[in-house]
């Protein structure tokens, strides 16, 4: 008896130990991602475009200088000569930058800077990023003010310069709005295709299909296809769906629609298997009772079987959405890797996962921004899990009452 208790205790400890490994790994992932990306994550990151608008400006006339006054905040540095203040900040990509925080109404820079690209005068605005400035001093010397030296150095350089050879400004950039919209489009179109097909196939296999070798073969093939590497599905999408949509909807090479069809054939086995399991666990006496009361097989399917299988269908939907959000290998083949700010279904784009792939493939990988996007993905999946659990709980509660 004692020996049996010792053995049982040993296996219980071993079970808890192995179970805790998964929890510990998950916690370590969360800690790593949040510690690297929390400082970069912001509402501006989510709503901003990825591509930057760059301006190259100049003020080549010699400026005699003013005597501007401004009460700086603790993090501001003011050039009294030009009437402009700068502040150190971090841009949406997590890189240290300098922005314009104040411009005097009488500053010559407000409307006096010439845009080199179109020979028009540029209206300088607060919150524009300054990447570099080249000024000319009183004695003709060149004064370089790169953003990497900070706002204080830039303000000091402006105080010594009497004209501006080059002032490089940047608006926006580094945001993930386009990738987020592309991900939502991909989820929407994929679910529209995969749920009806998957649920219909599960109903057929569970209710209407005869128990013969062909049915068993179909079930085996469905189980086997769920183990096919995703990159093979991507290759099929590239060779089949991309040319098809190029001909049908005049898409420009890659497209989100091709990505949705590719994800559909990838996710069908998951949706079919999960929905079929949800149908199979429904007590047979409920189905038999419905048929005995005179309901047809179709009426029983739509009024008895499907309502009771909704929690399982929700689970399959959640698994599908999680796979869509996290997939990258197949998506690269059919949607490309170029981030698009203006997202259209018949054009390519990047999902959040492929956006991370892009960032990590740079010569200098941007770990902070990649971690910030990973936080968005993890939080999205967590919220979806909670919503599906709540909906399933409410449906089960409603079903017990009725």
Distance between the termini: 49 Å
Provide the structure class.
Answer: alpha+beta
> What fold name goes in the CATH topology slot of the largest domain?
MetI-like fold
Q: Helical stretch count?
A: 12
Number of beta strands: 9
Class of the largest domain in CATH? Answer: Mainly Alpha
Assigned CATH architecture of the largest domain? Orthogonal Bundle
CATH superfamily of the largest domain: MetI-like
Query: Can you tell me the residue ranges where pLDDT is under 50 for at least 5 consecutive residues?
Result: none
Q: Rg, please?
A: 30 Å
User: Beta-strand percentage?
Assistant: 5-15%
Shape: elongated
Mean pLDDT equals 86
Main pleated-sheet profile:
9 strands, antiparallel
What order do the SSEs take from the amino end to the carboxyl end, as H and E? HHEEEEEEEEHEHHHHHHHHH
| Total domain units | 2
Q: Give the % helix.
A: 55-70%
Task: Explain the overall architecture.
By secondary structure, the chain is α+β, with helices and mostly antiparallel strands. The protein has 2 domains: 52-171, Pdz3 Domain, CATH 2.30.42; 177-401, MetI-like fold (Orthogonal Bundle). It has helices at residues 2-37, 43-47, 151-160, 177-208, 213-225, 230-248, 256-280, 284-292, 297-326, 329-335, 352-360, 367-401, and strands at residues 53-59, 76-79, 84-90, 96-103, 113-115, 120-122, 129-137, 142-146, 161-171. A hairpin with a 4-residue loop joins strand 2 and strand 3 (84-90). It starts with a helix and ends with a helix.
